[in-house]
Fold this protein.
Amino acid sequence: MLKLEDIGFSSLTKRLMDLLVASGLLFLTFPVFIITAVAIKLDSRGPVFFRQMRTGKGQRQFICYKFRSMYVGSNSKIHQEYIKELMTEDSAQKKQSGKVFKLTDDPRITPVGRLIRKLSIDELPQLFNVLKGQMSMVGPRPAIFYELKYHTDAMLKRFTVKPGITGLWQISGRSALGYKEMVALDISYIDHWSTWLDLRIILKTVLYVLKISHAY
């Protein structure tokens, strides 16, 4: 079976599709960019865009762009502790606690931030990461650097390809998934990649965003 990480025609096809889809979406969503930027500035002090170091292909670090959805000066410690609990609890503990990948009641998020996260608008600036070749439209979720310490050797396979704006994790429960479930879907995507799978995931992502379910 042809692997996504293989160099060749498949990689070129995926890159061309990324460029076409990202460019088209930037053109179509330009009014959304303007409205969101104004709403963020009116809602709370701080920049419109949020820049965060993420881990991509080959575990290389890159700056990931998002619309700012949190108050300026928010401490990431609350999320770091949450991820630690998710990754170190056993299955029985997770089932009892009902923890999912994202915090469902994060006090760091602004009122406008909650709305744009619900609609997945906060991730639109990642289209620039796609154009720069740091991300793909579809792929594993781009990991935050402090998550790496909890990865097993098997989990590291998700860094053999570019991370994506969307993926199997996005259309299979979004933020309602646990961390290890999300990683398992990332690896499954890599093992079963095809151009048609990418197209199906993109189309299903649009439907999931419109349903705005399991997004925090």
